[in-house]
Amino acid sequence: MILTMDIGNTNIKIGVFEGKQLREYWRLATKTTYTSDELGVLVCSLFENRHVDRGAVTGIMLSSVVPTINFTVEHMCRDYFGLEPVFVAPGIRTGVDIRYENPRELGSDRICNAVGTLIEYGSPAIFIDFGTATTFGVLDRDGAFLGGCICPGIRLASDALVSGTAKLPHFELIQPAHVIGKNTVSNMQSGIFFGYVGQVNYLISRIREEMKEPNAQVIATGGFARLIADESGMITKIDGLLTLKGLNNIYQRNFMTAE
């Protein structure tokens, strides 16, 4: 079994694969204050609750956009699984031609999403990760990663609206029934939600135009993917496990043939 971990700014997503098949999946809050023992006890309890033998894990593949927690995770993997984890980093083989000006700047989660999209859905494609930040990535017809764009996530945008104003209240992030709100909270919900959907749809349209691929499929992942997709009408597929699938494929490509 291969243990994969996608360490994001808000959550740590954990998946265990047998070959290409995902056996189990969990999500933890990202806390930079974890000790390796605290994190190890948490992860081991997740395994025990699902009756998964952690001794059967033969490899660990990690993606992280939170460098301050990497040392802790590495120690947890060594102490509780007896294995040296491998991070998605320059030099790892992905099978994707990355045409970024400086590939070392590219977040490992976006690399994994590119791999997952290409393997699962093919190209041309646009993949969107609705996380703390919303990231767009673009694969051309040949499967090469061309680049993309990054904007604040919808939760980040709503938090900024509240924290940056003196009188606007905190509100629940939901899809309102109408664009025209009748009170302050519904006005805020409408502006954030429908404005964000409009932003997403406009970016998809512009990307397709620049790609000269008007029918490029759109794959969405991340915590807010379904909320936006239900209204957008331009998202082809939702895959909440896209990053973990990419991680597993990268491990298979780099290590399984050697084994």
Layout of secondary structure:
Elements: E1 2-7, E2 11-18, E3 21-29, H1 36-49, E4 59-64, H2 67-81, E5 86-87, H3 108-121, E6 125-130, E7 133-139, E8 145-152, H4 154-163, H5 184-211, E9 217-221, H6 225-232, E10 237-238, H7 242-256
Parallel strand pairs: 1-4, 4-5, 6-9, 9-10
Antiparallel strand pairs: 1-2, 2-3, 6-7, 7-8
CATH superfamily membership of the largest domain: ATPase, nucleotide binding domain
Order of helices and strands: EEEHEHEHEEEHHEHEH
The overall number of domains is 2
Fold-level CATH name of the largest domain:
Nucleotidyltransferase, domain 5
The average pLDDT score comes to 94
Q: Please bin the fraction of helical residues.
A: 40-55%
What's the alpha carbon Rg, rounded to whole Å?
A: 19 Å
Count of separate DSSP helical elements: 7
Count of strand segments: 10
User: Which CATH class of the largest domain is shown?
Assistant: Alpha Beta
Mass-distribution shape: globular
Neighbour order of strands in the largest sheet: 3-2-1-4-5
Termini separation (Å)? Answer: 13 Å
| Largest sheet features | 5 strands, mixed
